[in-house]
Amino acid sequence: MALYDAFGKEIARRFAKPLAETSGRGRTVELDLGRPTSVNHVIAMEDIVHGERVRAYRIEGLGGDGRWATLFDGGLSIGHKKIDRFAPATVSRVRLSVTQSADTPLIRRLAAYSVEGTGGSRSLVDAVWAFDEGAGPAAQASGADWPARLAGPVWAAGHAGKALDFRTRHDCAVLGNVAPGERDFTLAAWVFPRSVPAGQARILAKERINVGANQFRLYLHEGGRLGFAMSDASASLPYPFVTSPGSVPLKAWTHVAVTRRGADFTLYVNGQAAARSRSPRVLNHENEEELRIGACTAAAGDGADYAFDGLIDDVRIYARALGDAELADPARLPDPLWRPLERWTESTFAADWKTWSVDLTPGIAAPGEFELDFRKTAGPGEIEIRSVELLIAGQPIAGRARPLDGSPGRFIVYRMEQTSADSPSAARVTARFAGGRPCAGQVRIRPRQQAERE
User: Do 121 and 76 form a contact (C-beta atoms < 8 A)?
Assistant: First the structure.
């Protein structure tokens, strides 16, 4: 039953909300997306009341150059429903072209989707590798079931506790095939470089040497500069995007970070914004390479190259762009598990039941199961919560929120629908101050991890 439940939720995550959909008849049916949009799945359905008429077809997309390109070819039939998956492509229109049919094709539905984590990869989630185990073949992450498999580096004293020491061009820690896609992110780490032997030493990278498309690397550039490079299949962040010379000195600990918020990128050194740049559009990065700490993938095979020479500690990934204030003190970065939402004050509730709405949108970037925490921060009283309801675009969705057993003030909410700007998430909370004694506090949210669900 758990597997059936997970399967149903994954189908809903992928296909509950299309980018756009239409219907039509004839050998071509076009779907207008309204703007250039990344697409990697198309669903087509025939009106089978009149029989299955399509015998062969292809899916095409209209690119930024004004030309139609084939996204999927070789389709043989559609019938009730056909789901076609292909490499991500940024297009403004999608076209179903029927090349063979028994009669006039009747297309009941043509819908386009952008589904994260389906190219053999999974999406980024919040995680921290503190490297404090000090021994063993892997480093565990806090915040996610996401171990880093060690391939060469050795344990050593770090900036705080233990760290990994990368000493040869083949050393790396492997995080697996994880794709940033189009979502915002923050990458951060403490680094102690001894040298930059190849002119560019990778701190965190998901790319193969000598491949121009889908590059992704946070790296040290010669001259003591921090850099970041990113591209998708056809566009890239302006290169080089680096900080000033000497900003990351050799043989000293330096905190480095990069954020992506839409098309805007910022590099940080020791908590201060050191360089900013903008990509020509929101880049969609997804390839079949592994995300690696300390190196990228060599030109051939699975070996490492352009490795980091030195120590790396406290690697962090956030599936959102942290702000300047959050990165200002590298010793006090936000807990990756919890994202702060709205605060309540001593006047928000009263001795009688009152209803209050909390915007969950900042913490729900994609469908999934989430944990809400109502945490008191000040005042003599306590908050007593009678109910929590999930709202999507202002409408209550029954059965999507429940108390977390054994954890007062915590609730589980589940959103199965795809997220978008026109369907924000919120929680409608009915609560009161127990005994009429007020308090203040803050609501926090985090994705639920598999281990917690079990």
Answer: no
